[in-house]
Amino acid sequence: MRSGRVLGALLPLTLLAAGCGIRATEVVEAGEPAIVQVAPAGQLGTVLYFVSSSTASRLMPVVRYAEWAEDGSGLPYGEKPPAGATKALGLLFSGPTGAERDAGLRSELPEQRVKIGVELSAQGVRVTLNTRVTGLSESARQQLFCTAAQARTADRGEAVTVTGSDGVIGPAHCSV
């Protein structure tokens, strides 16, 4: 009787260990990770990149909308105009809003008014600032590269070169 109980208890364990005939497989590569659009098509705004305080200096995108146009001309009802690359970088240097700070975002760029110039060339996006840039941390540099590339071309893969009062950083690509 006892051997019947032991056999009855071992049978489910044996079937479970056998995996019901399912064999182990190797990892199957399925390609690159998915890319998600932060600002859906048809919504006008600009994307800024701030540093997440909760994840090892990881950049996080934030959608900001520009001020309403004075007369609203040229815009569909209820839409706001895009900020543009110069305005986007100005907003970036202003730092995160109170709500963005409360959400755990911060900037590694100095909060200051900066004279900004942006142009698109055959080599990519060229940004000119009247502030020091060579001493910026890697996270601060990526904030600049990602925001400038996204605002100017809507393609974070565009090379960005930043010229400051003390030298040049880049060309580099957004790492996000």
Q: What would you say this structure looks like, in words?
A:
This protein is of the alpha+beta class and 176 residues long. It has 4 helices and 7 strands; from the N terminus they run αββααβββαββ. The chain has helices at residues 2-18, 84-94, 98-102, 138-153; strands at 46-52, 59-64, 105-106, 116-121, 124-129, 160-164, 167-172. A 4-stranded mixed sheet has the order 4-5-6-7, with helices on one face. A 3-stranded antiparallel sheet has the order 2-1-3. Helix 4 (138-153) links the parallel strand 5 (124-129) and strand 6. Helix 2 (84-94) packs antiparallel against helix 4. The longest helix has 17 residues, at 2-18. Mean pLDDT is 76; it is low at 68-82.
Strand percentage: 15-25%
Helix content: 25-40%
SSE order: HEEHHEEEHEE
Strand order of the largest sheet: 4-5-6-7
- How many angstroms separate the termini? 66 Å
Main β-sheet: number of strands, strand sense, barrel status? 4 strands, mixed
Low-pLDDT runs of 5+ residues are 68-82
Give the helix tally: 4
**Rg from Cα:** 26 Å
Shape: elongated
Strand elements, count = 7
